[in-house]
Amino acid sequence: MTSGRTWKLYAAAMALAVAGYQLIPENGWWESCWEVAIGYAGTAAIVLGVRRLPLRDRLPWWCFALGIWSNATGIAVAIYSAEVLGWSDMPTPSDPFFLGLYPACALGLGLLIRRRDARRNWTAMVDATTITTGLGLLAWVYVIHPAAQDTGMSILGRTAQVAYPVGDLLLLAMMTRLLRTGGSRGAPFWWITGSLAAFLVGDTTWVVLGNLGDLGAHLEEVLWFRRGLDEVFLIAFTLFGIAALHAGARELGRTATPQPPRLGKLQLVALTTTSLIAPAILATQLYHGEITDGPAIVIGCTALFLLVVTRMAQLVRQVELQSRQVRELSRTDELTGLPNRRAWNDELPRALEHARRDGAPVTVALLDLDHFKRFNDSYGHPAGDRLLKEASAAWHGALRQIDTLARWGGEEFIVLLPGAGVDEARDVLARALAATPLGQTFSAGAAQWDGAETSEDLVQRADAALYAAKHAGRNQIGTSLPGESTRVHMRSSA
């Protein structure tokens, strides 16, 4: 049976099982056995589904299977503890099993995140920490702090009650971080995310019901409502199994190519909303005339402020880096990697100014590949591009370290030779001509600066010397001294 058919059959069967949960007798044993069966089915689906994966990719899924199994087992232990042992007050033997979901799934998510991201993504970590901090403050004020102060429970009971929202915050942080990873975002990715979201929605709903007092207690007594809430957890069990059985599970742990960090609209809304949680809690307590969580609000506000500042600093650095990259790209020839004409136009005036100040000679040379059009027509444009790249690399190696080679345009290149008169420049160019690859040649024109002419005039004289070399038969170097006529040097005499 193909994996495509397997996950569909499993999903259909589980959909019927979850829907049928509303129809079973109103009996705790019936309900618990139904829930445990769906939970164990999800565990089995994960274990069977990941057998198709390479061994190194199975560990995150085994962690997920352990978490689902532990949570489902907690349901069985809870009904046994309540109906047989008569234990109902927290902590009960079921709490370690229920709580086992959180570290197991968090470990699986951590392994998955590490494999999807080739390197640490600090912006994603800041975003996840910001959202978790804001919601963590909300959980502290309305869940954790009241539970910790509940004198009607033992210390172990309060510890167990506090552990649940802490576990939810751990899952929230890992889920948020997973959403900020690169890599494949196929169906398994969203089913895992949906499962985690279902666990969080279910737990949050129970917390809200507990804070609603009599209304919450009344809703819990409504059979269809209570079972509907249980079905949220059953859906969470099922989605993990569907994700593991799907063929796309192979892509889930693939390392992604690093992408520039971005701040989308949804991210901005989420970060803005969570950043406003602390002042919203403060405003609510001020409205009721009593600030009961001042220290927590101060700590939360401070942490959120520092996280926002850190995120802004990251964005500024990102913009600066991108600006620098754009500036470098605008000054670099895409094909050869050499400076382009724009970079040359910035460099030459500076070189002439240095030569004027130091009283040193400087020469500019234009190089033009001979019969380049014929080469392109004979071998094709890809071969022509390869020739340009190989020739520029060979020339660069033949020039002096202080020389600057730039692409002037098409098959034309230009060289700046500081500290060199026209004779020394001719010798350097002769070495470059000898190094030209693929049996090709170039014509060149070199002009020594007269100490007064403009950059444009100097390049124009080099161009005239190049034209003379081409007119004389190519594969030659023409030179132009200040105040003298152009001379052409055959390759053999160079």
Automatic annotation (TrEMBL):
The chain crosses the membrane at residues 7-24, 36-54, 61-82, 97-113, 125-143, 155-175, 187-209, 229-247, 268-288, 294-313. It holds the Pfam family GGDEF. GO terms for molecular function: diguanylate cyclase activity. Keywords: Membrane, Transmembrane, Transmembrane helix. Residues 360-482 form the GGDEF domain. SUPFAM superfamilies: Nucleotide cyclase. Gene3D superfamilies: 3.30.70.270. NCBIfam families: GGDEF (TIGR00254). This is GGDEF domain-containing protein. It comes from Actinoplanes nipponensis.
